[in-house]
Design a protein that fits this description.
- Pathway: Amino-acid biosynthesis; L-lysine biosynthesis via DAP pathway; DL-2,6-diaminopimelate from LL-2,6-diaminopimelate: step 1/1.
- It comes from Emcibacter nanhaiensis.
- It holds the Pfam family DAP_epimerase.
- By secondary structure, this protein is of the alpha+beta class.
- It folds into two domains: 2-108 and 253-274, Diaminopimelate Epimerase, Chain A, domain 1; 132-244, Diaminopimelate Epimerase, Chain A, domain 1.
- It has helices at 22-29, 67-81, 161-169, 207-219; strands at 2-3, 6-12, 39-44, 51-57, 62-63, 85-90, 93-100, 103-107, 132-133, 136-137, 140-143, 147-152, 179-187, 190-197, 201-203, 226-231, 234-240, 246-250, 264-265, 269-270.
- The longest helix is centred in the N-terminal third of the chain and has 15 residues, at 67-81.
- It binds the ligand N[C@@H](CCC[C@H](N)C(=O)O)C(=O)O.
- Ligand LBFN2T5F binds at residues 6, 38-39, 57, 63, 65-68, 146, 179, 197-200, 203, 206-208.
């Protein structure tokens, strides 16, 4: 599936508890050798929600949050259960999702804003982080179940995110690395966002980055706790509600790729050569 072009391979491991190693996830996500995706998602049974969603980045790392995959999995489960609401457990907590017409709305939970919750390497104001890399400086840091650095710029065009993204992702200030966003205010309640994702690189969209962006822009007084966020792959409607929860609404899409799996041994080995 994909959410605004941020694409996923989703394994249903609810019955056999299918478990993919970091190497296996890297292989599946590889766009040349494997199927190719930004994140690999595995569904497991949950004791507290309708389903547990495991998230592995294209580099094999396991993470706590993925907004776009949450919408996709929510849509699958809403269809399967014939329900209007669903709960999804992740490493970061229990998320609630519901139908919103053809779209899915997810309560992405509460942002964490203290320096040691991001986490940063040392104490500082997360609304103005002491960091300058290339032409980018003073990001807002937000944790949405995963760490985000949000840089506000006059124009997102012409910024070399391929060059600066990895430098910031792996900067010593972020002991767990960081997702890196550049945000331009295009109008009242209208933000343009480009993202370099931790463990995946440039993606067409990042739901948790959109959450972090509406929180960061609100803290800086650029929006009034709500925004339409325009990503490379489409638009997400975001709100940071008065109860401190971040609400995300957007599209999902199915990509039927079952036949692509046939040549692969999913333990992480490509056995096409033997066939
Ligand atoms: N694409 C996701 C975020 C996936 C995880 C992220 N790369 C991380 O390492 O934290 C989204 O839509 O939120």
């Amino acid at each position: 599936m994909h959410g605004l072009g941020n694409d996923f391979v989703i394994f249903d491991g609810r019955e056999d508890r299918f478990d993919l190693s970091p190497d296996g996830a890297r292989f599946v996500a590889d766009r040349h050798r494997g199927v190719g995706c930004d994140q690999v998602i595995t569904l497991w049974p949950s004791n507290v929600g309708d389903v547990f969603m495991r998230i592995q980045n294209a580099d094999g790392s396991e993470v706590g949050a993925c907004g776009n995959a949450t919408r996709c999995v929510a849509h699958m489960m809403l269809q399967e259960f014939g329900a209007d609401k669903i709960t999804i457990e992740t490493l970061a907590g229990l998320l609630h999702a519901e139908r919103n017409g053809q779209q899915v709305r997810v309560d992405m939970g509460e942002p964490r804003l203290d320096w040691d919750q991001i986490p940063l390497a040392r104490e500082m104001d997360t609304e103005s982080v002491e960091l300058v890399v290339g032409g980018l400086g003073n990001p807002v840091a937000v944790n949405m179940g995963n760490p985000h650095a949000i840089f506000f710029v006059d124009s997102v065009d012409g910024i070399d995110l391929e060059e600066l993204g990895p430098q910031i992702e792996t900067h010593e200030l972020f002991p767990e690395r960081a997702n890196v966003s550049i945000v331009e205010k295009r109008g009242p309640g209208d933000l343009r966002l480009r993202v370099w994702e931790r463990g995946a690189g440039i993606t067409q969209a990042c739901g948790s980055a959109a959450c972090a962006a509406v929180v960061a822009a609100s803290r800086r007084g650029l929006v009034e706790r709500a925004a339409a966020i325009e990503l490379d792959g489409g638009t997400l409607v975001m709100a940071w509600a008065e109860d401190n929860h971040v609400m995300m609404t957007g599209d999902v899409a199915y990509v039927f790729a079952g036949h692509v799996f046939a040549p692969f041994n999913l333990e992480g080995h490509d056995d096409r050569e033997r066939r």
